């Protein structure tokens, strides 16, 4: 299932063009997150797609109880069995679906630092592989 913002018609196309800074690449990565305001409670998630500026993920966390106010979250993503990244993410939208409790889109806050560089390199390699470009690294 692709993550899509729920705006319809001409406005939707204009909004998506304005908001998409980079292309998204579909993938499934294990993740978990906590609310920045309550770091003790963790929720399981699966990242469904990534870009250089954000993520879409699904979670069993209840939309209205956890994500309804568009909080800042601490998102931990497993890039491999040995490597993970931790990023502060601003929830941009979330909604309930029939398959799981929440589908969430978020933007990376302060895109800098070592973990941001790791996710950017991961995204770039993945994007090049999926688009058929040669990887020069």
Explained architecture:
This protein is an alpha+beta fold and about 140 residues long. The chain has one domain: Beta Barrel (Thrombin, subunit H), CATH 2.40.10.220. The protein contains three helices and six strands; from the N terminus they run H-E-E-E-H-E-E-E-H. The protein has helices at about 10-20, 65, 115-130, and strands at about 25-35, 40-50, 55-60, 70-80, 85-95, 100-110. A six-stranded antiparallel beta barrel has the order 1-2-3-6-5-4. The chain starts with 8 loop residues before the first helix and ends in a 6-residue tail after the last helix.
What are its keywords?
137 residues, alpha+beta, Thrombin, subunit H, 6-stranded antiparallel beta barrel, 6 strands, 25% helix, globular
């Amino acid at each position: 299932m692709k993550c899509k913002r729920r705006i319809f018609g001409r406005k939707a196309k204009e909004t998506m063009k304005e908001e998409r800074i980079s292309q998204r690449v579909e993938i499934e990565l294990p993740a978990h997150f906590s609310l920045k305001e309550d770091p003790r409670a963790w929720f399981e998630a699966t990242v469904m797609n990534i870009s250089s500026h954000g993520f879409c993920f699904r979670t069993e966390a209840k939309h209205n109880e956890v994500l309804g106010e568009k909080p800042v979250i601490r998102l931990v993503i497993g890039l491999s069995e040995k490597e993970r990244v931790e990023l502060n993410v601003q929830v941009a939208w979330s909604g309930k679906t029939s398959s799981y409790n929440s589908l969430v889109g978020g933007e990376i806050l302060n895109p800098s630092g070592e973990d941001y560089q790791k996710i950017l390199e991961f995204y770039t390699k993945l994007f090049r592989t999926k688009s058929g470009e040669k990887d020069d690294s």
